[in-house]
């Protein structure tokens, strides 16, 4: 390996690492707020990239219909729940609240899809569609069982994963897509040529991480999400409802996943099932942070990115094996180091 | 003055087959402090949790004249109830200021503009919280934590504040300070439902009292009268009871 290849691989590692950081943040956020180990995080990535690819072709992406269908199911569930509570007066308002945002978003997407808008508008449409998907998935699949064990929630998450992968195959077909780059620029940097898209990935990830830090550290809703993650009972006692927090967390996670998908779309070919492996690497990074620490998860994400990139050079067929094997010593170290406190609950 | 704020009637709470509260009825009038005293395991905490909606219950709970039995805890908070539980339930990994700010979460959602002013009022009431505002809540001492829990509750501008054992685990001097703070709260217009093992102190600062035994309201009356009731003195106010025991022998 000479220094050029070394630097090339390092650049790859950083690009992928930046994406894994974002996905790890989403995983930790959802686990903290709802206790769900959210396996389908990567599906948001695939849906983001593939929805954008479909819009590029001037077609209506299947995501539109998924949003509509989930909204209808969510509205029926909401109506049934209120009926059983004996407050049928509130049903019309609740149904309208559940249906309106998804229908508006999918309506706009449906109308705008054939217009061949420029890339920026298509990205915006994609972000709106996929972000709407998050809270709907939470409402339909997780909210009814929000109080069960972590294991049950994990099983539901796996089910959601399979459902979303199947739907992606139905909507986007088995073919892979590559979306156009945001920037075709090639910037020479010594022996290295940095692609404009990589720069986009760095800048966007850093900007988005900064935005998230601001959201969690300075805004009331961000603090509320952290409060729920730290102390569920305490949060309820100050009036933060778990379902509101869950909805918000899922919206953010879907937004993060979608942005990641749009960012890597021009770099890697995304298939209907590509999300799983990408999401799993984000999850592995989150594990390094104990599913709780954001900075450690970011470090873990870079570690995963570096390992993946260099092992793809020497052991390309086994690069995923190497990445996931690496987690074992990390877990071992974490488990030896961790001190067990009495269970708080 | 004697407008009814909270009316709990024939409340039942059960843990599986075990009846924890049986047909309990208590009332809190606006602007008053009501205390519930009783031995360990009588169901005092259960009673508060049921009123707050943390535990499911059967029976009537009316707040400000409306039946709130079906509402979730969060909805009850939005209606103006607030519970400071025995375990405080602070956000230990967040700063004192963040804890206080989150206390006003429902007001923030409603678009209430007076949150900043409430924060200043809480700091005025508990100057020590102002000194420690950037510290993590988990690093506070027991007394400061209780102050923070009270402060966080006050940030929601409650009409009814429910306190579960505010003096538990605190040094006597700090207990005095906290109880003094609580009785001062009356002047801000908030009504208080207070649960205390320290029955003497509770009856001292409250207007009306209930004695809860085995999930039943065994006695009730004006706090002054309860404090002089021989049965209460014997069972809950310690000293006098001990003396009587010796006399019998």
TrEMBL record, chain A:
The chain crosses the membrane at residues 20-42, 62-83, 95-113, 119-138, 150-174, 199-216, 237-263, 283-305, 317-336. Belongs to the binding-protein-dependent transport system permease family. LivHM subfamily. It comes from Geomobilimonas luticola. Its main location: membrane. Keywords: Amino-acid transport, Cell membrane, Membrane, Transmembrane, Transmembrane helix, Transport. This is Branched-chain amino acid ABC transporter permease. PANTHER family: ABC TRANSPORTER PERMEASE PROTEIN, BRANCHED-CHAIN AMINO ACID TRANSPORT SYSTEM PERMEASE PROTEIN LIVH. It is found in: Cell membrane. Pfam families: BPD_transp_2. It comes from the Bacteria. It is a multi-pass membrane protein.
């Amino acid at each position: 390996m000479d220094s050029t290849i070394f630097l090339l691989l390092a650049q790859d590692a950083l690009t992928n690492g930046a994406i894994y950081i974002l996905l790890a943040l989403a995983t930790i956020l959802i686990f903290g707020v709802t206790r769900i180990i959210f396996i389908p995080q990567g599906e948001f990535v695939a849906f983001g990239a593939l929805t954008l690819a479909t819009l590029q072709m001037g077609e209506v992406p299947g995501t539109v219909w998924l949003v509509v269908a989930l909204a209808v199911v969510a509205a029926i569930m909401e109506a049934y729940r209120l009926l059983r509570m004996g407050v049928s007066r509130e049903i019309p308002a609740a149904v309208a609240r559940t249906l309106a945002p998804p229908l508006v978003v999918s309506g706009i997407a449906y109308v705008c899809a054939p217009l061949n808008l420029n890339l920026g508008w298509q990205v915006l449409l994609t972000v709106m569609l996929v972000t709407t998907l998050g809270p709907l998935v939470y409402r339909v699949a997780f909210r009814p069982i929000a109080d069960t064990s972590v294991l049950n929630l994990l099983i539901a998450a796996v089910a959601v994963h399979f459902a979303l992968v199947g739907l992606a195959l139905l909507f986007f077909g088995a073919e892979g897509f590559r979306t156009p780059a945001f920037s075709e620029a090639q910037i020479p940097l010594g022996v290295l040529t940095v692609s404009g898209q990589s720069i986009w990935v760095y800048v966007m990830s850093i900007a988005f991480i900064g935005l998230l830090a601001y959201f969690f550290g300075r805004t009331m809703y961000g603090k509320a999400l952290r409060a729920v993650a730290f102390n569920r009972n305490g949060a309820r006692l100050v009036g933060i409802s778990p379902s509101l927090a869950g909805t918000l967390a899922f919206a953010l996670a879907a937004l993060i996943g979608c942005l990641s998908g749009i960012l890597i779309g021009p770099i890697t070919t995304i298939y209907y099932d590509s999300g799983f492996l990408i999401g799993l690497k984000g999850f592995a990074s989150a594990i390094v942070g104990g599913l709780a620490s954001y900075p450690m998860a970011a470090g873990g994400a870079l570690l995963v990115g570096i390992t993946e990139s260099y092992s793809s050079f020497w052991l390309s067929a086994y690069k995923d094996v190497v990445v996931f094997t690496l987690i074992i010593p990390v877990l071992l170290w974490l488990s030896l180091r961790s001190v067990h406190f009495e269970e708080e609950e | 003055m004697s407008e009814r704020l909270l009316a709990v009637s024939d409340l039942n709470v059960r843990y599986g087959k075990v009846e924890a509260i049986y047909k309990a009825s208590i009332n809190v009038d606006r602007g008053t402090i009501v205390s519930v005293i009783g031995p360990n395991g009588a169901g005092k905490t259960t009673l508060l949790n049921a009123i707050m909606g943390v535990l499911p219950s059967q029976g009537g709970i009316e707040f400000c004249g409306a039946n709130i039995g079906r509402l979730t805890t969060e909805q009850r908070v939005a209606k103006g109830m607030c519970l400071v539980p025995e375990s405080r339930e602070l956000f230990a990994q967040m700063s004192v200021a963040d804890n206080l700010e989150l206390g006003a979460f429902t007001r923030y959602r409603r678009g209430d503009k007076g949150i900043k002013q409430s924060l200043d009022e809480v700091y005025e009431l508990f100057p020590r919280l102002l000194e420690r505002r950037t510290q993590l809540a988990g690093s506070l001492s027991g007394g400061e934590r209780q102050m923070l829990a009270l402060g966080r509750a006050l940030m929601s501008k409650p009409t009814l504040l429910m306190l579960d054992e505010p003096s538990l685990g605190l040094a006597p001097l700090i207990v005095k300070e906290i109880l003094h703070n609580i009785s001062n709260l009356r002047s801000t217009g908030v009504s208080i439902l207070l649960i205390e093992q320290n029955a003497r102190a509770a009856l001292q600062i409250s207007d009306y009292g209930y004695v809860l035994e085995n999930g039943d309201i065994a006695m009730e009356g004006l706090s002054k009268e309860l404090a002089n009731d021989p049965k209460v003195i014997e069972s809950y106010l310690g000293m006098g009871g001990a003396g009587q025991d010796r006399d019998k022998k």
